[in-house]
Amino acid sequence: MKRKIAILLTTYNGEKFIQELLDSILVTNHLESLFLYIRDDGSTDNTIRILKQYRAKYKHNIQVYFGKNIGILPGFNFLLKKSLEGDHFYFMFADQDDKWLDVKIDKLVTSLKANDLQKPKLVHSDLYVVNENLDIISESFWQYQYLHSDSINLNQILIQNVVTGCTIGINRKLAEMVYPIPEEAVMHDWWIALTASAFGIIESINEPLVYYRQHSSNTIGAQEYFFSMKKLIEPFVMSKYTRQAEAFYLKYSDKLSESQRKMLNDFIRLSYVNRIHAVKIIFTHSFYKIGFLRNLGLLAKILFQKRK
Question: Global pTM?
Fold first, then answer.
């Protein structure tokens, strides 16, 4: 018997594209073992009506929850809790605007099966960047944003996440470990990637498995990698990374190695220590982003930000 797959989806005013996403998921040959957990975040358009129609058609596969507007991260936390109450072995995440390739679930499951009983495991893939009509803007999201899928060591993911939530597949060990995701997490995918990096395995599938649709209403969209002086003078946001790292340290302190504790403690201090000490910490632990220009911007902000 196939192991059960839970796919988690939060929706909000997604009437324009939600049917295309659901149809692209439900064509899978894993339909008998696939379960969609959907939470609507207080939509005011036709999203709720559409979800009820799909729930009526796919009674075996779809569970829908309706509630007030609480945001993406609390929504995924709610769905993780509900799905972990079942006997699912694999967990995936979806965004309401995208379209999945019909091989996506097969590819993720095949990769997750290898060593899936030994360690927490995460698999992620590249994406096609597309416009509203699914015309391709870029054949590779990783190239479009100048990301390296193998930048998955803890020191790298603390400063920059390369794992995109709608491409993720994880095993139950990792799902149980990450829940509940704290409110200090920058996003659910970043927290999951941090946990997998520290305690498990991250593997990449070097091909696009999602059409990542870009439009005016994207909550989080894809912007082509570029550099401008404006980036150097924008308000410094290191504190959101260090808050996430502090929450990570508190949640997993008893599981971290001594070197991991040292690294996290130093990273957390980046928001507080003097400029020279902050730069020294960055070089000591190689807290580098991907690309010379990003790191130039990082160092400029470290040097010119107001210290706490």
Answer: 0.93
Whether residue 221 is contained in a domain is answered as no
Give the side-chain half-sphere CA count within 13 A for 80.
23
C-alpha to C-alpha distance for 210 and 127, rounded to whole angstroms:
5
Low-confidence residues of the chain, pLDDT below 70? 1, 115-117, 216-237, 305-308
Angle, helices 47-57 vs 18-26, to 10°: value is 20
Separation between Cα atoms, residue 230 and residue 117, nearest integer Å: 47
Q: What is the pLDDT of residue 28?
A: 79
204 and 62 in a common domain: yes
Q: Of 5, 59, 62, nearest to 29 (Cα)?
A: 5
- The predicted pLDDT at position 29 comes to 79
275 and 132 housed in the same domain: no
User: Is residue 222, in this structure, part of any structural domain at all?
Assistant: no
The C-alpha angle 131, 233, 184, rounded to 5 degrees, equals: 70
Same domain? 136 vs 181: yes
Q: Write out pLDDT tens, residues 124-136.
A: 999 999 999 999 9
Structural domain harbouring 79: 5-213
152 lies in the same domain as 244: no
**Which one, of 71, 53, 58, lies nearest residue 10 by Cα?**
71
Domain final residue pick, 184, 213, 242: 213
Same domain, 89 and 118: yes
Token pair 């936390």 in the structure block, residue: 77
Is residue 159 domain-shared with residue 73, that is, in the same domain? yes
| Phi and psi at residue 244, to the nearest 5° | -65, -45
Positive or negative, the CA dihedral 255, 252, 280, 276 is negative
Instruction: Provide the domain count of the chain.
Output: 2
CB of 83 closer than 8 Å to CB of 198: no
Which residue is listed with tokens 């064509």? 27
pLDDT in tens, 208-222: 999 999 976 655 555
